Sequence to fold (511 residues):
Amino acid sequence: MDVAVDPDAMLMLAYARGDVAAFETLYARHRGMLYRFLLRSVRDPHRTDELFQETWSRVISARARYQPQAKFSTWLLQIAHNLMIDGLRRQRPMAEGDEAEAALANVAMPEHEQPDHALSEFERRRNLQRAIEQLPDEQRTAVLLRLEHELSLEEIAEVTGAGRETVKSRLRYAMNRLREVLAE
Amino acid sequence: MTAQLPPQGPQEPDEHLPGETELTALYRQLPQSEPSAALDAAVLHAAAQAVVAGEQPVIERRRSSREPGNWVQPKPVSAEGPKLSDPSTASHGRRKAGARWLIALSSAATLMLAAGLAWHMRVMPSTTSTPDAASYRAAVNSPVEVAPPAAVAAPPPPAAPAQLVTAQTADHLVEPVATLQQTPQMASAKTAMKRHHAIPAPPVEEVSETAAAAPRPVTEMTRVAQPAAESYSSTAPVATASQAGRSEVAAAPMLMPSPVAPAPAIQAIEKPTAVNPSDTPAQELGKIQQLFTQGHDDEARQRLDAFHLAHPQWELPAELDAQLHKP
Fold:
């Protein structure tokens, strides 16, 4: 994708010039995907809120020196990923097991996915969710960036700071594991 | 056979991994969680505020369940550093509390030290700036004033020996307390005495003439004796003058502790047999013997008694021992 015509980058540049409406549009376009990425990575709603605010705060702080050298979404996810890694280095306890399941299950579901749906679909989603949680951190991040944001290997490599082949290997291992879980 | 290189460059189409399409479809069915309205409002408010203020953004942070305190407003979330709930932050807080405690303790110790020094400095000047010390320094620095030559050369006024003794006795009764404080003055008097011992004592006749002509130091003793001295200076025979000198010599022991500094020096210089605290026991015995020789038996006996009380173990000469046991 040509960075020069990235509409998100244009919005960010407009916000840097003082256009608050541009930021509101930018925020509306990325708020959900950023929140979900963080929630499924750290599996802690409170920590997710903190990281979410912190990520946007970094974006606001860097508005004056923002250079559209990459896609805005890639830059945004890179900030979030770095903050998340910093949090993991501080060894903050993450929600695990039933607590994490409850946290992820409590989020609002679309009406068409409420209890009247087939049990098999529910079980498949639940298994996928558990399988993603049980992945190693690097593989989980790569899978989330791929499935949630549909980033390319290069973009994932840019976000995570790893090589392209490393990302590809991580994705391959992670997806094999997810398919195994779903096939059980 | 060569290994196939992975696609390179951003222009190359990204490859799909096996089973990715199925996983993506199932992933899209997972609950689509969204940030809360409060979170949205906080971020949008921070963005607008940053544009208005042109400064670093401030986001109202909602208190996390793991964070102490309440809403933090304003607090830049982007501020780097440990969070409030970070264990290192808690230990840092304990260190800060400890530092505050140490500061308080050191301040109290400093105050105590300052108070102690102030108390010590308040006590010190009182011991170094007493009037005695000042007079001692003055006496040392100006020995001429303490014992001027004219006063030294002036003989004792030969008048009113009874009045003189009475006044001197009264002074003597008041002075025992002040005797200890006059020690520096006595030392200065001794210094002056040593200086003037080199001067040969004038003969009695010359002393009487000088006493009539030379001005006397204004002391109580001279004030009492001056009218009589003026009346006797021209008419009294030499023997009278020497007799008056004897009567004053008899009163010398009582004059020694006079508060007036020059008096002991004058006494010591005028009468070689006068009491001198700096004399050794042998010298004192010599003076006592001299007094007996000169016929001043009363004074000699008094001083002998005093000497015996002060030095009971001292072996007295036979003649003095006989005088001591004489009723």
Residues 109 and 115 of chain A are 10 Å apart (CA to CA). The domain at 1-94 of chain A is CATH 1.10.1740.10 (Rna Polymerase Sigma Factor; Chain: A).
